[in-house]
């Protein structure tokens, strides 16, 4: 059970429609999401999905057309909330001719924080040594890190980062991910948006998948990747199929080719994918054996986040791609 004090962000049918009349665009459509204390929450979706718009409403930067956003138990955007939240959303406005350190000091003063806050933040993002260099001389990665430094000044309970690794090279991305994980380890709740599945898979505890303004799914990364599919390989094939359909239902079984290992089929045993939870594996095994079938394999099928994501976001009823490959055979 989740205690309501553990909920840091909750939106209820949050909706944003841009424009009026013919040119109107529904950017966010009745999104209800929940972010819990201490987690790294990934808001995942392709370009134009509605991520930034949702985050802007959560931060109180724009008003929803309908629905609500509650942050730390209060309506989003109120002054008592804003000072407990840090954000990096659309490139931070830094003065190019000031040093990184002075930029942060200016911001700290503006927000009523001590200049210690600027120094601590510089240390946290590993920029203290380059703190006296002018902002305009920074690499993109350093600029992004300074943005995160500005978000974490004053020790906010929640940090919201919109595509924090966008535009960074692989090393810069890795640095940023490490920084996010270290912030989370120190107890800060983090919401980040990303269109990078690998990134979300690597650093997020839970994920909300958004496409076309709608929240398609919200769950842990592990849940999202599956655990609800069983791969069954048994012979004779017609007997295996009959048993599978009896247990999983006609629509709960997909037939895919024999398992491949990169050099071709491993054997000629057909693979069945059953939409069943892992706990059903013993039952499947029992019935197959009772029916006189030989079991070659029953396994939990782990899909990559990428496969799940494309299944969810592909508009046509595409046949989901299920990997039939067996690693290291
Ligand atoms: N100020 C605006 N006026 C009109 N339409 C807008 C505005 N801002 C965003 N949109 C539209 O709303 C939809 C959602 O945009 P949004 O920026 O929230 O998506 P996103 O998931 O953050 O995408 P990206 O990763 O490309 O930034 C898009 O179709 C976009 O064109």
UniProtKB/TrEMBL annotation:
The keyword Metal-binding does not apply. The keyword ATP-binding applies. PROSITE patterns: ABC_TRANSPORTER_1 (PS00211), ABC_TRANSPORTER_2 (PS50893). One of its GO terms (molecular function) is ATP hydrolysis activity. Keywords: ATP-binding, Nucleotide-binding, Transport. Residues 9-237 form the ABC transporter domain. Belongs to the ABC transporter superfamily. This is ABC transporter ATP-binding protein.
